[in-house]
Amino acid sequence: MLIDTHCHLDAAEFDTDRDAVLQAALDVGLGAIVVPAVEHANFQTVMDLTRGKPWLRFALGIHPMYVDGANPSDLTALSALLEKESECVAIGEIGLDYYVTRANKETQEYFFTEQLKLAQRFDMPVILHVRHAIDDILKLVRKIPVCGGIAHAFNGSHQQADMFIDMGFKLGFGGAMTYPRALKIRELAATLPLEAIVLETDAPDIPPVWIGNKGRNTPSELKQIAQVLADLRSENYQQVIDRTSKNALQVLPKLADLCTSLKVLH
């Protein structure tokens, strides 16, 4: 049983064939997919997308690349939804992104810290966007500690990985580690404790090497991505799937509550 801990299934790239994409994912063995929001405008979209589909679960949050269009009332709306939406598995996708720009660093930090406070208040894990901003994110999470979560698309150092792990986080690995030239990410995937790793696609983004940088990623690619992880680690494929799925359910307790019949829990 595979778990995709990060898939933007609501993205426009899936508008023409979303049902077929979902079926393809189920056909290759996915048991659960987490769909994170990125802004207030798509909170309802991701919630509606997952209704009536037990293999789909949502997270709600304001992504750092969307903060320029956000305002404090969006945080109030997020808080109200967290009060009543028991199926929300995490607050996310939240964090910092200094790859695109640092010009709005203050705004990014404001929305990130306020959402960390909500995670504290509701005792919920967070799904972190950490691109080119890991040190600042670690600093803020130390200041406003939460119950854990996932550092999505992790590509930091071993030392930074250990810091996240010590704070109760799992580290997300996906299509980036399939590229032979991604030496740093592949070395991390091969040597970090398997108990610290979860699998993700970030579909439609971060396509694996067999699709190419300009192609559309889909959750069904997770099966082959898992095989790459097993190969990098010289470990048994099924054991890698079982362990990473167990990790996902550990770090996202509400996902585990909704999946108690899954084999990985037995």
Q: Top keywords for this entry?
A:
globular; alpha/beta; TIM Barrel; 8 strands
Could you explain the architecture of this structure?
By secondary structure, the protein is an alpha/beta fold. The strands form two sheets. Strands 4-5-6-7-8 form a five-stranded parallel sheet. The chain has a single domain, classed as Metal-dependent hydrolases (TIM Barrel), CATH 3.20.20. Helices cover 41% and strands 13% of the residues. It is built from ten helices and eight strands. Helix 3 runs parallel beside helix 4 (105-122) and helix 7 crosses helix 8. It has helices at 18-27, 43-50, 72-84, 105-122, 134-143, 158-166, 183-191, 222-233, 237-251, 253-257, and strands spanning 2-4, 30-36, 56-59, 91-95, 126-129, 149-152, 169-173, 197-199.
Query: What's the end-to-end separation, in Å?
Result: 12 Å
Tell me the CATH superfamily. Answer: Metal-dependent hydrolases
Q: What is the architecture at the second tier of CATH? A: Alpha-Beta Barrel
| CATH class descriptor name | Alpha Beta
Instruction: Report the biggest beta sheet as strand number plus sense, adding barrel if it closes.
Output: 5 strands, parallel
Report strand order across the widest sheet: 4-5-6-7-8
Which stretches of 5+ consecutive residues score pLDDT under 50? 261-266
Average pLDDT, all residues: 95
Instruction: Write down how many β-strands occur, each being a DSSP E stretch of 2 or more residues.
Output: 8
Q: How many structurally independent domains?
A: 1
User: What is the overall shape?
Assistant: globular
Number of helices: 10
